[in-house]
């Protein structure tokens, strides 16, 4: 058995029988077993009691994590004139209009977040088949279609995380790095859970938050007591 196999086995043994932990206990366990040679991402997955095939049960939103994500986010902005200058000054990595559309259509996507001013949406709309599957399509509901380009760029660069429920009713995201202090990871986890809790749709019936779990990139997952995660 190689070193990776031994680490994985040891981690699974450490996680055995650990269920419904507090956020603090779960973070401590996952962080202490994140021993890859790179700085692993701490990921959260939430099983929700919704069926996103129904419009009134869609869960979508964004949250700015209090301690950031630890990830460098590349931001593209579709804008012209003064708004393009505003985006550049705010730290956007790529700014353009028709030229940027042609670049994306050509398959060159060198960004993690896409922002657009409202007047650019007829152009951006042509890229739906390219950006949509990658969850990069600008959307006013999460603040990425906006005239306040400066705020949107700074939020994206400063630790804002977008979330959208998948077909199976699962929401997942990265909430920090294994190198973060435990207290900072705990704050980020609670902030994310709180945002998803507040995004409960009108059509949700029964138990909304069924399961919450965290893991590191290379490690097993561990379940968190839902009541503890939500502070109820």
Task: Label this structure with key terms.
9 strands, alpha/beta, Rossmann fold, 2 domains, three-stranded parallel beta sheet, Ribulose 1,5 Bisphosphate Carboxylase/Oxygenase, 232 residues
In words, what does this structure look like?
Helix 2 (23-32) crosses helix 8. The chain has helices at 3-15, 23-32, 81-90, 98-105, 121-124, 128-131, 149-157, 182-198, 226-230; strands at 41-48, 60-64, 75-78, 94-96, 113-116, 160-164, 170-177, 209-216, 221-224. With 232 residues, it is an alpha/beta fold. It is globular, with a radius of gyration of 19 Å. Helices cover 34% and strands 21% of the residues. It is built from nine helices and nine strands. A four-stranded antiparallel sheet has the order 7-1-8-9. It folds into two domains: 19-69 and 160-230, Ribosomal protein L1/L10, rRNA-binding domain (Ribulose 1,5 Bisphosphate Carboxylase/Oxygenase, 2-Layer Sandwich), CATH 3.30.190.20; 75-157, Ribosomal protein L1/L10, domain II (Rossmann fold, 3-Layer(aba) Sandwich), CATH 3.40.50.
CATH class bucket of the largest domain: Alpha Beta
* Count of folded domains: 2
Pick out the low-confidence regions.
Answer: none
Multimerization state: single chain
Task: Sketch the major β-sheet.
Answer: 4 strands, antiparallel
Gyration radius from CA atoms, angstroms = 19 Å
The count of β-strands is: 9
Helical proportion, percent range: 25-40%
- The CATH architecture designation of the largest domain is 2-Layer Sandwich
Strand fraction equals 15-25%
Provide a short characterization of the protein structure:
The protein has 232 residues and is of the alpha/beta class. The chain is 34% helix and 21% strand. It has two domains: 19-69 and 160-230, Ribosomal protein L1/L10, rRNA-binding domain (Ribulose 1,5 Bisphosphate Carboxylase/Oxygenase); 75-157, 3-Layer(aba) Sandwich (Rossmann fold).
């Amino acid at each position: 058995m190689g070193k990776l196999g031994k680490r994985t086995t040891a981690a699974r043994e450490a996680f055995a029988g650990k269920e419904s932990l507090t956020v603090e206990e779960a973070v401590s366990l996952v962080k202490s077993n994140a021993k890859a040679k790179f700085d692993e991402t701490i990921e959260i997955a939430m099983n929700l009691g919704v069926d996103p095939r129904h419009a009134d049960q869609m869960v979508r939103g964004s949250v700015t994590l209090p301690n950031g994500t630890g990830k460098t986010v590349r931001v593209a902005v579709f804008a012209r004139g003064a708004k393009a200058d505003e985006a550049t000054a705010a730290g956007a990595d790529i700014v353009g209009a028709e030229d940027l559309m042609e670049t994306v259509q050509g398959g060159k996507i060198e960004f993690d977040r896409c922002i657009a001013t409202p007047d650019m949406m007829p152009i951006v709309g042509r890229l739906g088949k390219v950006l949509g599957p990658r969850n990069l399509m600008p959307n006013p509901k999460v603040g990425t279609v906006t005239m306040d380009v400066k705020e949107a760029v700074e939020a994206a660069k400063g630790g804002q995380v977008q979330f959208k429920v998948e077909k199976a009713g699962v929401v997942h995201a990265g909430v920090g790095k294994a190198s973060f202090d435990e207290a900072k990871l705990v704050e980020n986890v609670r902030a994310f859970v709180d945002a998803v809790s507040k995004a409960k749709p009108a059509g949700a019936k029964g138990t909304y938050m069924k399961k919450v779990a965290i893991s590191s990139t290379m490690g097993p997952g561990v379940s968190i007591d839902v009541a503890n995660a939500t502070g109820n």
